[in-house]
Design brief:
Elements (H helix, E strand, L loop, with lengths): L2 E5 L1 H12 L19 E8 L4 H6 L7 H11 L5 H4 L2 H9 L3 H18 L5 H7 L9 H10 L11 H8 L1 H5 L5 H4 L2 H12 L2 H4 L3 H15 L10 H10 L1 H4 L16 H14 L1
Antiparallel strand pairs: 1-2
Helix pairs in contact: 1-5, 3-8, 6-7, 9-12, 12-15
C-alpha cells in the first residue's frame, strides 16, 4: 500500500499561474503529464487507492460522470474534509494519479480549444484548477457532489446524487455556491422534492431549478437555514410547485450581474462545454 501524495502549495500555484498565462497548454494534449516529484508531499494517514486509475479511465465518457463520481468518492471515502478542501490535493490528482482519466475525459474539449486559440486556457483552468467556485474543478466537484448529497439512511444512498447529476445546471451554477452546498439538510430536502417531480422539472429544467435555488438564496437573508431540518426544505419546494410550473423563462425579476468580464467568459466557456 502506498501513501497518498499531494503537490506542495507553491508548486500547485505555479502550475496554475502558468496555465492562466496561456503557457505550455499543449502539454495537456499528452497522454502523460511530467511533473516535479520533488514538489510533492505525503498525506499522512491517507492510503492511495489501488486500481482507481483503471476504473476511472473506463468511465471517461461524459455520459458516465455520475458513475465516475461515485467511484471516485467510494475510493476516497476516508478523505478528511480538511484534505478535501485543499486545492493542491485535487490539482495533484488531476496532473498525477488520475491524469490519464482527465486527459481522456477532456481531450476533445482541450483539442477544440487550442485549435481555436493556442493561448486560451479556459477549459484547462476550469477542469484542472480553481478559477471560480471550488466545486467546478472536475475531480473536486465530483467528490463534493457525492459527499454533500449521499444519504446513508436511504436504501439507495445516491438517490439525491443522481438527481443532482440529472440537472447539470444545479452542479455548474446554482449549487456551486459552496456554503449552501455544505448544508446537507438543505441539499437533501431540495433534491428529494425535485427528484420526485420529474413531470415539472424535466421541462424548462434550467430555469425551474434556478427559480427554486434563487428562492432559497433570498430566504437565507432572513432565516438561519443551517439550523433547519431537511423536511423544511422539502416542504418549501413542495409549496412552490405551482409557481415553478408556471416558469418558462429565466424568472420574473431582473438580476444584476456583478461578475467581472473574466468571470463572465469563464462561465460562458463552462456552459458551452456542456452543450
Amino acid at each position: 500500500m502506498a501513501i497518498q501524495k499531494i503537490f506542495k502549495e507553491g508548486y500547485a500555484g505555479a502550475l496554475n499561474n502558468k496555465v492562466s498565462r496561456g503557457e505550455e497548454l499543449s502539454l495537456y494534449l499528452n497522454k502523460a503529464f511530467v511533473y516535479d516529484e520533488s514538489e510533492t508531499d505525503w498525506v499522512g494517514g491517507l492510503v492511495q487507492p489501488e486500481g482507481l486509475l483503471d476504473k476511472m479511465v473506463s468511465l471517461s465518457d461524459k455520459s458516465q460522470d455520475f458513475q465516475a463520481a461515485i467511484t471516485l468518492y467510494e475510493n476516497y471515502r476516508q478523505l478528511s474534509l480538511v484534505v478535501a478542501s485543499e486545492k493542491s490535493f485535487w490539482i495533484y490528482l488531476g496532473h498525477a494519479d488520475l491524469y490519464l482519466y482527465m486527459h481522456k475525459r477532456f481531450l476533445n474539449d482541450v483539442t477544440r480549444l487550442l485549435h481555436k486559440d493556442p493561448t486560451k486556457p479556459s477549459v484547462i483552468l476550469n477542469r484542472w484548477f480553481f478559477p471560480r467556485e471550488f466545486v467546478r474543478n472536475h475531480l473536486a466537484g465530483m467528490w463534493w457532489d457525492v459527499n454533500c448529497t449521499i444519504d446513508e439512511t436511504n436504501s439507495d444512498p445516491y438517490i439525491n446524487t443522481r438527481t443532482l447529476f440529472k440537472y447539470y445546471d444545479m452542479r455548474s451554477i446554482n449549487f456551486a455556491n459552496f456554503k449552501m452546498f455544505r448544508n446537507k439538510e438543505q441539499v437533501k430536502g431540495i433534491l428529494k422534492c425535485i427528484g420526485e417531480h420529474p413531470e415539472i422539472f424535466d421541462i424548462y429544467s434550467q430555469n425551474r431549478v434556478r427559480y427554486v435555488t434563487k428562492y432559497f438564496n433570498r430566504l437565507g437573508a432572513t432565516k438561519q437555514l443551517i439550523a433547519l431540518p431537511w423536511e423544511f426544505f422539502y416542504n418549501t419546494v413542495d409549496s412552490l410547485l405551482d409557481e415553478v410550473n408556471q416558469v418558462f423563462d429565466s424568472g420574473k425579476e431582473t438580476i444584476i450581474d456583478t461578475r467581472t468580464e473574466k468571470e463572465k467568459q469563464l462561465d460562458t466557456d463552462w456552459q458551452n462545454e456542456q452543450d
